[in-house]
Specification:
disordered N terminus, 2 domains, disordered C terminus, 13 helices, single chain, D-Maltodextrin-Binding Protein, domain 2, five-stranded mixed sheet, alpha/beta, about 15% strand, 12 strands
Amino acid sequence: MNLPGTRVLLSLLPIAALGVLATGCGEMKETQSQVTERDHVTLMLDYFPNADHAAIYAAQADGDFARAGLDVTIEAPSDATTPLRALEAGQTDFAISYEPDILLARAKGAKVQGVEALVQKPLTAVISLPKHPIETAADFKGKTIGTAGLPYQQAYIDTILQKGAVDPSTVKTSNLGFNLVGPLVAGRVDGVLGAFWNYEGVQLAREKKKPVITKIEDLGVPIYNELVLTASEDTVRNKGEVVRRLVQAIGFGAAAVKRDPEAAIEPLLKASKGLDKGLQLASLKATIPVMFPEDTSHPYGWMDVEAWAAYCRWMQANHLITDNKLFARAFTNEYLAGEGVGDKTDS
């Protein structure tokens, strides 16, 4: 990948349309009824279609969007910085983004809000090769680390070095843009921070490169939701029924992915020609465990307020934002199965 709420009173329309039931394991039992009239919405991905988006494509192929009264157009962005800008400009109704980017956008005044976590934990990792393995903070000493140049990636490195008592002057960094794997394999850097362990890491392993993968949360970076379905505050406030139907339909897609990954990957492959099926399936299987909340009493898409608050404090401490209360309006669980006003039949 090389990247990385407000309460409203909802009518019963999405409940009737979806008939969503939350189960003890955080999944949903599909009892959707057919809806004849549909609302058209656009959904912009964070990157080119890949296994991270399998739940969305499964929901589309299985008819979950249609049964929820939605006609969903899925779009790929021109680059990874496009989705939130397009969302704020009203060029798309929904966008896939990342918790850090949502908070940075809100710090600049953007009225965007996460409505569903597609991935619960960071996918960003430190990836190195056996010649210069990086498994602990101490291993950073004397190394050159490539990043995609995002401000919070440098802050990740600063945090790792500080927690590991490593002198920052002994570590070099290099802005590689979004092409991280090539320079790593070519030996121009000793390791990269910004590649995803579930994608580039899997790809390197399949190519027999024997990657050394160290997840950033194991190096002291606070946990955050890597992929988040995001909407404008205006959409959340005025089109709550549409938001609810979309997030819960994607939840059905996620449940299908978990039940049968091999079947669920097919819609993605059909939608984006040229993808390597073996890589996408391996990536999806690696991702499934972090698609769902560890606390199985929570539904798919859940975002933990304490984790968001902790990450927000970390961003402030690292001078990325000035207000550590930004998280309070940066996301909402209001539209998930079993959550929200008027949705008590789901619980």
